[in-house]
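Re: that chain you flagged

S.,

Sorry for the slow reply, it's been a week of failed gels. I finally had a moment to sit down with the sequence you sent. For the record, here it is as I used it:
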Amino acid sequence: MLKILKYGFFDLMRSRWSYIYFLFYLSLGFILLFLNQDVGKAVITLLNIILILTPLIGTLFGVMYYYNSREFTELLLAQPIKRSNIFLGQYLGIALSLSLSLVLGLGIPFLAYGIFQSSEIFNFFILILIGAMLTFIFVALAFNIALIFEDKIKGFGFAILTWLFFAVIYDGIFLILLLVFDDYPLDKFALFTTVFNPIDLSRILILLKLDISALLGYTGAVFQNFFGTNFGMFSSITVLSFWIVLPVTFIIYKSKRKDF
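Prediction finished late last night. Pasting the structure tokens below so you have them in one place:
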């Protein structure tokens, strides 16, 4: 698995798209810090970008890599190698390479602006952690989609729909339900539904740390009231970890039973 992980990692790191992804975050970090001169404001701005862009890139790269390396995967399957090792190695390779591009792309400009001497260093660390966790989550979801759909068009279409659902549609449905049932106590319902959207959980996690009550929104305010800031952050990270573990477990399960 480590050899496959190493191959997938360096294969993607040599890809021009990885360089584009890295240079995008690198330039974005320098531009935001140059315009704001305030690390705290830059972190808030980056949060909105990372919550949308990172899941999209993770989903597209995951599906694209799986379909483009299908022949190589079939060659590996003919060897005396566990199926789980093959797919876990490929998954970890792409997730780690994308996460590294994100960490280096944002880390270099913030290091240049003295993030270690800033009071916002922990907020920046949480931001990077969220970006990495979202990358691992949506790459895992993309691999599951590709394992289910043999046809590339269906796979790409469902992958985009999955990202669109978590990024836009889910919140729209939730707001409609709040409006329809506004006469009922919906605190526990809001708390329960937040668990099923990793993007919402990530947003609440960083906003709880920044303590920006005006930006928390309804679900974030409920989260803070129920758990408080510290326990709320711990709960968010725990649930996000489950969002990584469960899709990875399904990758192992599906790969063992799929007929290639």
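What I noticed first: The chain has a mean pLDDT of 81.

Talk soon,
D.
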